[in-house]
Amino acid sequence: MSEAREQNESVFTWAAPPLKFGDGAIDEIGLELAARDLTSCLILTDPGVRGTGIPDRVLDHVRAAGLKSEIFDGVGVEPTDESIAEAVAHARELEWDCYVAIGGGSAIDTAKAVNLLTTHPGELLDFVTPPIGAGTAPWLPLKPLVAVPTTAGTGSESTTICVVDLLSQHLKAGISHARLRPSLAVVDPRTTLTLPSAVTAASGMDVLSHALESYTSVPFDAKPAPADPMRRPAFCGSNPISDVWCEMALTLVGRFLRRAVHTGRDMEARTQMMLASTYAGTGFGNAGTHLPHANAYPIAGGAKGYRAEGYPEMVMVPHGQAVASTAPEVFRWTYPGHPQRHLRAAELLSGRTFTTTDGADALAGVLSELMADIDVPVGLRSFGFTEDDLETLTDGTLKQTRQLAVVPRAVDRDAVTTIFRRSL
Questions:
Q1: Cα 311 to Cα 302: distance, rounded to the nearest angstrom
Q2: Using an 8 Å Cβ cutoff, are 91 and 118 in contact?
Q3: Domain over 197-422 is classified CATH 1.10.3720.10
Q4: Mean pLDDT of 23-45
Q5: pLDDT digits (tens, 9 = 90+) for 335-381
Q6: Does the 24-187 domain belong in CATH 3.40.50.1970?
Q7: CB 24 within 8 A of CB 189
Q8: What is the C-alpha radius of gyration for the chain, rounded to an integer number of angstroms?
């Protein structure tokens, strides 16, 4: 071996929580908690999901299993440091044995933060990834957390990551540690049947981006080996196990996302998109997301008067839309980092064959076609951004060290600014 090769990583990590998947799976949550000898449970959700009746259905089953339980439905649709502080304050009023999160990534990420901050001293920023926060690693055990996604998109039920909108900094940031991973993921496709088409589309683009970013991330053995093997980052880069899940997710998204968006009661399409989300979540939760997600955080944090169809009446850029907005240009730019991966991803997503003659336009073109078919907003100007915002957006992306560590090309300010400019 060369000296350079000896300095590269030779080990990758892969983990996922136990999974219960299928129609009616949510009705077994009470039995699962009772089997773990738990006696009390706080259910966290948002008002919109509460309105579907799903959290109260779970509450009934949890109480029927003999546990003390109640619902906190004050989760922010896009969780902020302020909304998380409110949830933490509520959770601290009583002692809970465990938590159940029901909703999209907002509910699950909020529950992760609540679990962390009710079991550890300190503030939210103490745990946020540097350079935004101190990056303190949790050192105490967390309580059991059951994650119940109600969108085919988040992947948070599988991951070690909690994302929060820091209002004072107009920026999203994350906390990442293995102890944040849920104890059990309960995935019931029927919970997605009533999702509006615009929410289905945005969620589906998040699934797609999870799979694409993980699949095209820097290979784990091309990264420098950590000085301390016990402190490997949560995002280890593309690896043989994550690759399998990502390929399956890309195939399912290509076949079923359009159907799920345009025919919401199509149970087969809903089930297959939930599978795709689960596959992509277990992929990116280990390999990692890169530039589309890094770009999405300052886009969401800098929202300017945009109100998304199908979402609550508030200024926000839904995560899936924020991720999708720069994805075509990102994958044009990352193509030289791994051409064959990009071409293979385009084939899995579209069912067509591509060669190096198609080059960087292959995957970008397939993405643009899909976004047009499902009416995803195109261009940052849709959200109110202009040339004047490029510097601020670039600054926000360059702070996302967790994602930047697995980009398949060396990233600098000029590259990020160019991607944003081309995405206007």
A1: 18
A2: yes
A3: no
A4: 97
A5: 999 999 999 999 999 999 999 999 999 999 999 999 999 999 999 99
A6: yes
A7: no
A8: 20
